[in-house]
Design a protein that fits this description.
14% strand; alpha/beta; 8-stranded parallel β-sheet; 44% helix; binds 1,3-dihydroxyacetonephosphate; TIM Barrel
């Protein structure tokens, strides 16, 4: 079934000490006033995963996510991290296809399809990112652009495998810019994404899929965004680096 999810993508921020401090703060705040019905995910750099996993063992419901993984099982791929390694480090979720990886590391839809397979084959949950650049939004072709990303990287999956996938719609023009999609823009795209998924996987599977919004989501706009019919939570960048802001967002449901 569809879950409410708030995931904090730290990107390349925080030393180990800073990361431990931030997660302790979040765990304490969440314990003080428990949050119901929201899956909380922390997505730190790879190198902090093991230490954070040790810290979090007694602090459910916070889950760990990774920002990427390699498309191969194992082998001579210097500098890379496999899905099996992530699993063995306590990771539950893996972000696949973030726009920064598509743009700076040339990740193609086909490569992302292979990464999705790796994540699912290792019993992990992919958070698949999609979203259009400003030029595409300005030419009003955002739906076609995002539908192609979804089709190329997800439509090879069985209905059962698709049932494990979480989607994050992150318009590139809203990431790190302070410009958030309006409630109308977010709802329109999330609904269109759900309809596109339904056209291939069926209404029920699409209805059960959590679709998160990402892009300058913060305490001041999270409530409005999370109240939308087809927005099931957020993938948070900048605001997840501050414990109080991140917990305020979690409490926006
Ligand atoms: P910001 O919240 O900093 O805009 O980043 C969003 C994002 O890219 C999360 O993956």
């Amino acid at each position: 079934m569809k879950k409410n999810i708030v995931a904090g993508n730290w990107k390349m921020h925080k030393s180990l000490d800073e990361g431990l401090k931030l997660v302790s703060e979040i765990a304490t705040l969440v314990k003080e006033a428990p949050v119901n019905e929201v899956e909380i995910i922390i997505v730190p750099p790879f190198i902090h995963l093991t230490a954070l996993n040790k810290l979090l063992q007694d602090n459910d419901p916070i889950q760990l996510g990774a920002q990427n993984c390699n498309e191969h099982d194992s082998g001579a791929y210097t500098g890379e991290v496999s899905a099996a390694m992530l699993k063995s480090s306590g990771v539950v979720y893996v972000i696949i296809g973030h726009s920064e990886r598509r743009a700076y590391f040339n990740e193609s839809d086909e490569l992302l399809a292979a990464k999705i397979n790796q994540v699912l084959n290792n019993g992990l949950i992919p958070i698949f990112c999609c979203g259009e650049p400003l030029s595409v939004r300005e030419s009003n072709s955002q739906e076609d652009f995002v539908f192609t990303q979804l089709t190329n990287s997800l439509f090879h999956l069985s209905k059962e495998s698709f049932g494990k996938v979480v989607i994050a719609y992150e318009p590139i023009w809203a990431i790190g810019t302070g410009v958030t999609a309006s409630a109308a823009q977010a709802q329109e795209m999330h609904k269109a994404i759900r309809n596109h998924l339904a056209s291939h996987f069926g209404q029920e599977a699409a209805g059960n899929c959590s679709i998160l919004y990402g892009g300058s989501c913060k305490p001041s706009n999270a409530k409005e965004l999370f109240a939308l019919n087809d927005v099931d939570g957020g993938l948070i960048g900048g605001a997840s680096l501050n414990g109080t802001d991140f917990v305020d967002i979690i409490r926006s449901f």
